[in-house]
């Protein structure tokens, strides 16, 4: 019988995004060797922001970086829901949890820097510009051939390589992301003095959000329906985005429209979800974050789920129990919660699509109720 207090000693993490770095930090802090294989030669993270609700901050705190994320981001309260003219009719968000505010807005680049600095500090090994080529996934360990010709032997492989996960395909087969018919446009701005919290404006053809990122910056997101062919040529991005915003007389929106000039700063992408069926593990390979459950940003929670996965998985991998039993506990603690968020986001997305296409919503459709119920549920312990 294995008497070691740390039967799992050596973990490979494929993908160095929010989920991959977080689980690596948590494992390394627990005394488990954590190595990240990241396909990019150098990290390239775009400059718009990300919403971290209180449960995301709780997970960041578990790996020791919540305070730094708040110091370098912009904590704010509940999001004000407004008509296109700016009239507030409600609010949304995860309620504050202990010392964590309802939200922290932060630039993705800065969040990445915060995680990376912590990962380097605790000694996570980064292997950049490579990925796995083949995997021999046995009940007692994993042997990996990397694309640079090197090899490695690990107790566990955690794959956190995003919605189009290569490892998921190699080990579990093909799962195709589902385009939901919506797209999101994002643009960074100087923060106006009047932006005292996050705002969402509900138009007939789009939704607009204004999210603080630092004391002097914010980003805007605009959700639209782009139909079956959602690709948009670069030279049309600025004009099309501005055209959507003409539906919003609200001062906070009108005051920034003229700043939209650079197509390179328009981050536009069609929205997809992915729900990997249970189990998210096979032998010694386990899936985390968007690779298992990619959601659309209607509830601003995809990264929060990846962070929570990381905290739970790292906690479990410290236990002296059979790995399969640990992975089963991971499924019990993560599957329903993640699916709840993805499915509620899909419902909200489906209703948005109907509205933007001029169709009536189904009887009983209540956006506020779905948002409120789901976000409240995220305050439960993980
Ligand atoms: C438009 C939009 C807005 C969003 N807004 C929010 C928000 O406000 N709040 C929130 O909580 N969530 C938000 N999300 C979700 C959030 O971005 C994701 O859930 C989160 O980034 C998932 O993290 P991850 O680490 O699982 O995957 P990813 O962020 O996709 O990271 C994957 C990493 O793996 C690397 N990689 C890919 N393939 C390989 C490979 N074969 N080998 C090695 N490495 C590989 C990639 O380069 C990357 O570094 C949003 C998502 C979208 C699309």
TrEMBL record:
Q: Which residues form a coiled coil?
A: none
Task: Please report the stretch or stretches of sequence annotated as the FAD-binding domain.
Answer: 10-344
In terms of superkingdom, the source organism counts as Bacteria
Query: Does the keyword DNA damage belong to this entry?
Result: no
Keywords noted in UniProt = Monooxygenase, Oxidoreductase
User: Could you tell me which Pfam families the record lists for this protein?
Assistant: FAD_binding_3
Q: Which PANTHER family match?
A: MONOOXYGENASE (PTHR13789), PUTATIVE (AFU_ORTHOLOGUE AFUA_6G14510)-RELATED (PTHR13789:SF309)
Name of the featured protein? FAD-dependent oxidoreductase
Protein species of origin: Nibrella viscosa
């Amino acid at each position: 019988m294995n008497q070691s207090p740390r039967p799992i000693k050596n973990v490979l993490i494929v993908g160095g995004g929010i989920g991959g770095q977080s689980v690596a930090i948590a494992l390394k802090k627990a005394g488990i060797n954590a190595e990240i294989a990241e396909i990019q030669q150098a990290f390239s993270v775009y400059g718009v922001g990300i919403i971290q609700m209180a449960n995301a901050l709780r997970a960041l705190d578990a790996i020791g970086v919540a305070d730094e994320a708040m110091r370098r981001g912009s904590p704010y309260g509940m999001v004000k829901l407004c008509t296109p003219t700016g009239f507030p009719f409600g609010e949304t968000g995860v309620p504050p949890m202990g010392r964590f505010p309802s939200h922290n807005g932060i630039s993705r680049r800065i969040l990445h820097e915060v995680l990376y600095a912590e990962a380097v500090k605790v000694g996570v090994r980064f292997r950049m510009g490579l990925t796995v080529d083949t995997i021999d996934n046995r009940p007692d360990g994993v042997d990996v051939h990397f694309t640079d010709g090197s090899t490695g032997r690990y107790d566990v492989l955690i794959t956190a390589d995003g919605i189009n996960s290569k490892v998921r395909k190699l080990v579990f087969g093909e799962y195709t992301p589902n385009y939901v018919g919506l797209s999101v446009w994002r643009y960074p701005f100087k923060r106006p003095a009047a932006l005292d919290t996050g705002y969402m404006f509900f138009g007939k053809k789009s939704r607009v959000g204004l999210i603080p990122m630092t004391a002097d910056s914010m980003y805007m997101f605009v959700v639209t329906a782009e139909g079956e062919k959602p690709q948009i040529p670069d030279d049309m991005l600025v004009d099309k985005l501005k055209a959507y915003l003409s539906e919003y007389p609200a001062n906070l929106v009108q005051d920034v429209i003229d700043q939209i000039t650079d197509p390179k700063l328009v981050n536009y992408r069609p929205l997809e979800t992915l729900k990997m069926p249970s189990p998210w593990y096979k032998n010694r390979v386990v899936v985390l974050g968007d690779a298992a459950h990619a959601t659309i940003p209607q509830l601003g929670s995809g990264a929060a789920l990846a962070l929570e996965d990381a905290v739970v998985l790292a906690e479990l991998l410290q236990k002296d129990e059979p790995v399969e039993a640990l992975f089963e506990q991971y499924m019990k603690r993560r599957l329903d919660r993640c699916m709840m968020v993805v499915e509620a986001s899909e419902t909200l997305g489906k209703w948005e699509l109907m509205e933007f296409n001029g169709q009536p919503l189904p009887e009983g459709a209540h956006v506020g109720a779905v948002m409120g119920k789901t976000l409240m549920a995220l305050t439960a312990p993980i």
